[in-house]
Amino acid sequence: MExxxxxxxxxxLPGEVEIWxxxxxxxHRIFAGYGGREIRTPLFExxxxxxxxxxxxxxxxxxxxxxxxxxxxxxxTLRPEGTPGVARALLEHGLxxxxxxxxxxYIGPMFRYERPQKGRSRQFSQIGAEWFGSPHPAVDAEVxxxxxxxxxxxxxSDLGLTINSVGHAACxxxxxxxxxxxxxxxxxxxxxDCQRRLDANxxxxxxxxxxxxxxxxxxxxxxxxxxxxxxxxxxxxxxxxLDVMEVQxxxxxxxxxxxxxxxxxxxxxxxxxxxxxxxxxxxxxxxDLVGSMGGPPTPAFGFAIGLDRLVLMVAAExxxxxxxAGAPATDIxxxxxxxxxxRSGLAAARALRRAGLTARLEPDARDMKKQMSRAAAAxxxxxxxxxxxxxxxxxxxxxxxxxxxxxELPLGDWQRVVQEMAxxx
Length: 425
Ligand code: HAM
Description:
The chain is of the alpha+beta class and 425 residues long. It has helices spanning 17-32, 47-53, 59-63, 83-92, 95-98, 137-153, 169-183, 192-200, 214-218, 229-244, 289-292, 307-320, 339-354, 368-377, 388-392, 414-423; strands at residues 37-38, 44-46, 66-69, 75-78, 103-111, 123-132, 159-165, 250-251, 265-271, 279-285, 300-306, 332-336, 359-361, 382-386, 395-400, 406-410. It folds into three domains: 17-168 and 228-316, BirA Bifunctional Protein, domain 2; 170-224, no CATH class; 332-422, 3-Layer(aba) Sandwich (Rossmann fold), CATH 3.40.50.800. The protein has 16 helices and 16 strands. It has an eight-stranded mixed β-sheet with strand order 1-5-6-11-10-9-7-8. A five-stranded mixed β-sheet has the order 13-12-14-15-16, with helices on both faces. A three-stranded antiparallel β-sheet has the order 2-4-3. The site of histidyl-adenosine monophosphate has 26 residues, from strand 6, strand 10, strand 11 and helix 12.
């Protein structure tokens, strides 16, 4: 039997993993600068959570969830997105009331049973941010700017921010009525799912991906024309704050995202280099979610970035510009010959690593010449030579790789080795 990773999953190998780490470090640094604190929630939750919050009519819930029964017959689901679990956690632990859990972010895997292709997999990772507690349009603008700040710090270009407003519940009720009226005469031309949605949840028709539904959708009225005065003013204010922060964007009145909980602002960031799966980041306001979960009315705004797609973009950028991230540099390679030398080498490696250096020692090595070329291949700055002649003199040799200069030092005084290396920098 040939063992392979499950369809739609992939391994992140050394070489690529350094890009993930670089991004993760940037996330911690940048999001903390906006008051964000990290949260880690379970990878699976009761199925009901997603049905109720992501939405029972969404593609994610009806077609893409990994749902299973545990041994006690409970229905559980691998999280397809992070927002419901985060809202649940903050509610469960009373953090919304206390006001100290109101700006959180997460990095982690999500699961959706989708058709895999470049940039789309069944296990993928998201970087998400959820800001709770404020309905202010400046929050919308600042959180969108935070996502863009992350992309800028990673030196990405060719990104587009698209925004829209889907109004509050009453605007959407009005829009649903208009949409239904407009599409009813063409009901028979819609796909079977959309025919059903026309009665149940006509808004979901707008994110149907069946090709024959596309031209019909294009003739439908847009939600931006159904906004009440307050929602319109909120949207105008968001645009004003984006202008203040010199953030470029376009308004797309047809942008309706595929999850049910959005109210008012929705947005997407697309990456030019991504091809067909070009949505790099999506999010928006969801002022009613916490209330609908039984919590106190709590306005909120958030987004999630597809981390795998971000890695693709950063990798492409790196290839275009600088050299790709290779293995981490080795400060010192420890070459040894014989059991006694290996023992000294292990002690040296431990001491050098404790001093903050990266040390590499290969216990199986038998041949000094081979070890010297391994040291060069590893890009070592120095090689510590523990060969027979030196060992007999109770000493070791420290070779500077840039010019081959060798210094003899007493065996066991590893601090001297560290000092020598610091001088030779
Ligand atoms: P979403 O648009 O479903 O939103 O996903 C956000 C991002 O996750 C997408 O733009 C895409 O980059 C990435 N993504 C989604 N599915 C896949 C997949 N199968 N393979 C690779 N990447 C994928 C949400 O998940 C919301 N929770 C965002 C949010 C947070 N809204 C408010 N707060």
